[in-house]
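>> received
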Amino acid sequence: MKIAVLGSGGWGTALPLLLLENGHKVLLWSSHARKADLLRQSRKNPMLEGVMLPENLIFTSEMAKVGQADMVVCAVPSFAVRETARMLAAVIAPGAVVVSVSKGFEKESALRLSQVIAQEMNNPVAVLCGPSHAEEVARRIPTACVAASGSRELAELVQDTFMNRNFRVYTSSDVVGVELAAALKNIIALCCGICDGMGYGDNTKAMLMTRGLVEISRLGVVLGGKKETFGGLAGVGDLIVTCTSMHSRNRRAGILIGQGIPVMEAMSQINAVVEGYYAAQNAWHLAKRAGVEMPISDAAYQVLYHGKDVHTAIQELMNRSKKHETEETWI
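>> returned
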């Protein structure tokens, strides 16, 4: 199969290695001609330290060449998805499949990224998400993800295309739940990083991850996702890896904020897109619109966008009114 991958960040560069190993012909598109040339010449991406890019991986900055692909993998940051999809729509073959592997929301509309792509073209769109650091996938470390589509045939096509002995793929019909879980967990990872930066311990992180998953699934179900999705790879799986790993740019940004670095300076120091920052604003608006209580995400929004002191935010969370963990029936 001829596959084009859009986006030359860490994830956009790791996935072609996987696809080449599976016997596909792969073209990697970068929006910057200079970056495409550097990758072609050096056969290295600084975001994947120690990984050499094979000679049969083709690089380009010309969208016209993407039009020859049978499948297009969209791995650009959330803020670039609509513009990239619009350019893709002008060249993509009518029967080509689009696989969205980016995590986040469109900032202005709070739309899921597959929705953004679908608005720009009529091609079938699937989603691939899960606990998958690019740095580890590129080094063939065993990983599992979930391919989601309303079409079983399409989900299984993505499964067959990506799956191999080091990269296991499950299928799901719950596109809404998978995308929401993938986007919202970045907020909790930022919060865990903040608490790490403040010097708190494992108890705090476990509390944030567990209660964070509760509020993520609460919003996700109201918006049309399936509850069980949030207990799977795209939900708890991605939450664990993003909240605990130093590969996670969201966690690293949070650590800086917890250490007292101003929010925008922390974002700048990461030198890559911190999707949790943008997701916090979208989640706040979605929760208010849906009437869903999300105290951790709300606290993150107040810290990130309104300058609330992190110590104050933690104390307010700890001093909330008493709750049952689940719905209880007492005798």
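>> The domain at 183-318 is CATH 1.10.1040.10 (N-(1-d-carboxylethyl)-l-norvaline Dehydrogenase; domain 2).
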